[in-house]
Amino acid sequence: MADKRGIVWLASYPKSGNTWTRIFLANYLVNGDKPVPINQAHRFAMGDSVAKTYAMAAQTSINTGDLDQVLDLRGRVLRGIVANGADVNFVKTHNFQGSMTGRLLIPKELTRSAVYIVRNPLDVVVSYARHFGLTHKQAAAALSNVSNWIAPTGDTVGQFLGRWDQHVKSWTVPADYPQLILRYEDLLTDPVQHFANLLTHIGIPIDQLRLKKAIEFSSFKELSQQEEKGGFEEKSQFTKAFFGKGQAAQWKSALSPELVMQIRADHGKTMEKFGYLDE
């Protein structure tokens, strides 16, 4: 049986708006009279790092720290997703678009399309530091490290990030499948237009009232209130809350001028391409 192009990737560097986008999508698809619980959002866009899916593919327990085993199983995990009978399967990923030890992380033969969310790396550093319990200087160094990754845990397999600029480039160069690039900042300033672009890209009809309701149900105020009441499964152990202020240009009051200069020196070409040197 031939491979099916059934995966729509929701891709980003960590702390760039991926979770917010997935929760918006869940609310639009459900179209309920109250917000979708944040801890149910994974039902609408599963992650590609969930260890139990790799154990299911292996039909036995696995060692998430065994990278060869995990990479060998990855293709089987993704083929299992597209074999579920659905025409479209939304899959969240923080992996770069490329290969690890000769294995493709994002197989083109399984890919229907991709949505890539990009955010100013100056703000990514601020959020990344808070999420992973790092100093701003350590977070900036991580974003400039070609070997940067999210290490595996008992519940997740490793996620291969690399440098911020290389990650962005890997997902935004022309591909043989449809691509949509969303700037986090544009989603903040004009969510109606840019979330509508997301729906159009994945082939979902737009209803304006439904769109505005889904945006309201996935507002940062709503998400923060839900997390405060019931917690959020994706919150790291290093921070009090997953959802921050959801604002742009936080870096202006958070980062030292020296660190801003360093980040711009490391990623300036890509920052310029997406309008991040103009701020």
Brief synopsis:
With 279 residues, the chain is α/β, with parallel strands linked by helices.
Distance between the termini: 51 Å
The helix tally amounts to: 12
Largest sheet, in brief, is:
5 strands, parallel
Using the alpha-carbon principal axes, give the shape: globular
Number of discrete domains: 1
Radius of gyration: 18 Å
Q: Identify low-pLDDT runs.
A: none
Number of strands: 9
CATH superfamily: P-loop containing nucleotide triphosphate hydrolases
What would CATH call the class?
Alpha Beta
Q: Within the largest sheet, what's the order of strands?
A: 2-3-1-6-9
Q: Within the CATH hierarchy, at the fold level, what is the topology? A: Rossmann fold
What's the helical proportion of residues? 40-55%
Give the SSE order as H and E letters.
EHEHHEEEEHHEEHEHHHHHH
Task: Indicate the mean pLDDT.
Answer: 93
Proper CATH architecture: 3-Layer(aba) Sandwich
How would you sum up this structure, described in words?
The chain has 279 residues and is an alpha/beta fold. It has a single domain (7-273), classed as Rossmann fold. The protein has 12 helices and 9 strands. The strands form 3 sheets. Strands 2-3-1-6-9 form a 5-stranded parallel sheet, with helices on both faces. It has a two-stranded antiparallel sheet with strand order 4-5. β4 and β5 (103-104) form a beta hairpin. α4 crosses α5 and α6 runs parallel beside α12 (257-273). The chain is globular and about 50 Å long. The N and C termini lie far apart (51 Å). The model has no long low-confidence stretch (mean pLDDT 93).
